[in-house]
Specification:
The protein is α+β, with helices and mostly antiparallel strands and about 325 residues long. Helix content is about 35%, strand content about 25%. The protein binds ligand DP6.
């Protein structure tokens, strides 16, 4: 039997995916747009076994020495995805497997750990079944994992998830190579705590927010504006739009029922600091996913200045510096 090794990045969205128009096929209401993160990734080693009774997942978390057997809940998601993958790939044969997964960053803390994991697993399973999928089909498969944003980790560099009309037309493609624009995402880690509500549960309640439909009504205009700024490399307009977008998504999260308050006191302090520095001429913008950690988006030329400024900032206990990188790939 075979062992495959895979490296798969997390991604940070500039236009977010929040809310599902179809939960079975994980279809979004709107297109979304992200960059792959060079230093927030998952390394997977997957061994296939003749013994179909063995299906195991071991996880080595951020800054931990040893692998630990995964919780039941995570294992359940893996088994579900394995079945989905078999259906999608029309595979009848059963295999056993042992997965070893290592995270370069805290999981379930708003840094897209599931996106990194499931995009990697999508590629890994195709390889174990000896199937070569093109990136479009691989992106569809990753989306079907339930962690929809996983589809954006498959293509290289800057990824665009086309919402599509149905399951086969909803996938991500690369709109620019990693070298296109030297943007940096400094992930300011304020907490390693795992979130209590999964994004999946959150998506299903998005429509209960009175702000959800107004968000969707305006999102195409925001998408048009951010695309224009991106292709002009107009950092100021680009940054203003990505901030506006993060606030729009969190306004929905905070007003849905039950509400999701991901921001902490420290999140707000850091946001204010980013705005203060910007007013003084040091330009960066913030975005936040489903967690309290802040992603500071800046240009490479300013990266050291921000790193030095925030490294001793109260409440920040780690900073992960990410450039734009390629997507999910096979190492062996
Ligand atoms: C807030 O359902 O893809 O990050 O399963 O936790 O990976 P996980 O999340 P998923 O939703 C992502 C929601 C988001 C916004 C985004 O990345 O677009």
């Amino acid at each position: 039997m075979r062992t495959v090794k895979i490296k798969s990045p997390a991604n940070i969205a500039f236009i977010k995916y929040w809310g599902q128009r179809d939960s079975q096929f994980v279809l979004p209401y709107n297109d979304s747009f992200s960059m792959n993160l060079s230093d927030c990734y998952v390394l997977l080693e997957i061994e296939s076994l003749e013994n179909i009774g063995i299906k195991k997942l071991y996880i080595k978390n951020y800054q931990k020495e040893n692998f630990e057997i995964a919780e039941k809940e995570s294992m359940k998601k893996v088994i579900n995805f394995y079945q989905q993958a078999k259906n999608f790939l029309k595979i009848k044969k059963e295999i056993g497997f042992i997965i070893k997964s290592q995270n370069s960053f805290p999981k379930k803390a708003g840094i897209a750990s599931s996106a990194a994991f499931f995009s990697g697993l999508a590629l890994g399973l195709t390889k174990l079944f000896n199937i070569d999928l093109d990136k479009k089909k691989l992106s569809i498969l990753a989306r079907l994992s339930g962690s929809g944003s996983a589809c954006r980790s498959i293509p290289d560099g800057f990824s665009w998830w086309h919402k599509g009309k149905d399951s086969l037309s909803s996938f991500a493609t690369s709109i620019a190579k990693p070298s296109y624009w030297q943007l940096v995402d400094l992930v300011l880690i304020l907490s390693k705590k795992e979130k209590k509500t999964s994004s999946q549960e959150g998506h299903l309640k998005a429509l209960t927010s009175p702000l959800f439909l107004p968000r969707i009504k305006h999102i195409n205009d925001r998408i048009r504006r951010i695309k224009k700024a991106f292709f002009k490399k107009d950092f100021t307009s680009f940054g203003e739009i990505l901030e506006e977008e993060a606030i729009s998504m969190h306004s929905v999260m905070m007003t849905q029922k039950p509400p999701l308050y991901y921001w902490s006191k420290k999140t707000v302090e850091v946001i204010k600091e980013i705005v203060k520095l910007r007013q003084k001429g040091l330009e960066s913008y913030f975005t936040i996913d489903a967690g309290e950690n802040v992603h500071l988006i800046c240009q490479k030329k300013d990266c050291d200045k921000f790193f030095n400024y925030f490294k001793n900032f109260p409440g920040i206990f780690d900073i992960i510096i990410n450039s734009v990188c390629q997507g999910t790939r096979l190492l062996k």
